[in-house]
């Protein structure tokens, strides 16, 4: 059985662990039926694209915002250690977070 | 008849939702599923009930509900969350202490001071890592009433009030878990106290002299203080 690897919790982070039924097309992580959001994305990738209609995506968005804010307040970069590479990858610059802000290429008239 | 449809809608809401509307507060202990039912019921309120008398108290949807949602995501399968919310406000009888006279000098004729203490939110959750998280939010208002004589002999009354908010968070770690000092200190407005023992407790407290101006800011302040006790243990990323 492949377990769902979506991050759950707010202060105490953990993995979902329910049997996976699909994979996220963006980051490839295994997803259970409850954690498949719009477009088949995982909650973290959906949150990175501001698609927070699914409760899990909204929770991921709030958790990410809280960690980002408190890591700055506490000046504690280690507070982000709790997230793994899957969680962080969706929010990396240029990782498809928001296509509007990406470079359109050398032959484009303007960068969008 | 009068408000018949809204009365019927109100009667169909969650019992704690009805307590919030009629008594402006509730106290209950439930697992995460029970709180999810209450939150669903509260989100239906605005669409079904328009009468101002039956409106939800301030701080319900913008402070209490987000905190319940976040803490429920940390509860274990058998964990419960206790919420004691008193959203009646500071001015209800019983929250203001006795008045006391202050020492004065002319032109002040007399001055009295009274404190209103409003512990409006108390949360206690049994988290899935075995720790127990307790959050207490208290508003304290100092009210001063001053009687003075102006140069023309008129007697004037002046009133002043000062409001501060105290946020206290305590996390009792699971038995046998040792605390570790975080790499960086908390912000200056958050104080920390650690009590070692069989079950180590980490207490974080903050006194806000400037009250939060919005529900989102209030939630952020509470969660910021609640973050400190979780920095005292290594983070666990096991199966939920």
Any idea how many domains of chain B? Answer: 1
Mean pLDDT of chain A: 80
List the uncertain runs of chain A.
none
Strands side by side in the biggest sheet of chain A: 1-2
Tally of structural domains of chain A? 1
Span between termini of chain A: 43 Å
Taking Cα atoms only, what radius of gyration of chain B do you get, to the nearest Å? Answer: 22 Å
Q: Please report the two chains with the greatest interface, counting residues with C-beta closer than 8 angstroms to the partner's C-beta.
A: A-B, 26 and 30 residues
Summarize the topology.
The complex is a heterodimer of chains A (112) and B (240).
Chain A lengths: L6 E2 L5 E2 L6 E2 L6 E2 L11 H6 L6 H19 L11 H5 L23
Antiparallel strand pairs in A: 1-2, 3-4
Chain B lengths: L3 H8 L3 H9 L1 E6 L1 H12 L1 H4 L11 H13 L8 E6 L13 E2 L6 E19 L5 E18 L5 E18 L17 E6 L5 E8 L6 H16 L10
Helix pairs in contact in B: 3-5, 5-6
């Amino acid at each position: 059985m492949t377990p769902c690897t979506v991050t759950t919790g707010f202060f105490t982070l953990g993995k979902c662990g329910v049997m996976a039924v699909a994979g996220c097309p963006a980051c490839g992580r295994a997803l259970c039926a409850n954690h498949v959001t719009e477009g088949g994305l995982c909650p973290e990738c959906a949150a990175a694209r501001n698609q927070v209609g699914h409760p899990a995506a909204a929770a991921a968005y709030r958790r990410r915002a809280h960690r980002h804010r408190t890591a700055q307040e506490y000046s504690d970069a280690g507070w982000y250690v709790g997230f793994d590479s899957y969680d962080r990858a969706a929010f990396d610059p240029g990782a498809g977070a928001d296509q509007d802000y990406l470079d359109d290429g050398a032959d484009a008239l303007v960068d969008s | 008849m009068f408000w018949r449809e809204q009365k019927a809608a109100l009667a169909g809401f969650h019992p704690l939702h009805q307590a919030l509307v009629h008594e402006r507060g509730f106290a209950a202990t439930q697992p995460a599923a029970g709180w999810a039912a209450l939150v669903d019921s509260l989100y239906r309120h605005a669409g079904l009930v328009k009468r101002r008398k039956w409106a939800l108290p301030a701080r319900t949807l913008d402070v209490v509900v987000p905190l319940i949602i976040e803490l429920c995501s940390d509860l274990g399968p058998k964990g419960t969350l206790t919420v004691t919310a008193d959203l009646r406000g500071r001015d209800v009888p019983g929250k203001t202490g006795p008045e006391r006279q202050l020492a004065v000098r002319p032109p002040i004729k007399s001055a009295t001071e009274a404190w209103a203490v409003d512990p409006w939110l108390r949360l206690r959750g049994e988290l899935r890592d075995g720790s127990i998280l307790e959050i207490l939010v208290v508003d304290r208002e100092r009210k001063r009433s001053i009687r003075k004589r102006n140069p023309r002999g008129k007697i004037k009354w002046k009133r002043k009030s000062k409001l501060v908010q105290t946020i206290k968070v305590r996390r009792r770690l699971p038995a046998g878990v040792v605390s570790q000092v975080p790499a960086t200190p908390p912000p200056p407005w958050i104080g920390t106290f650690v009590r070692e023992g069989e079950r180590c407790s980490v207490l974080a407290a903050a006194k806000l002299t400037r009250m939060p101006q919005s529900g989102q800011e209030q939630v952020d302040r509470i969660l910021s203080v609640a973050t400190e006790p979780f920095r005292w243990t290594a983070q666990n990323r096991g199966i939920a």
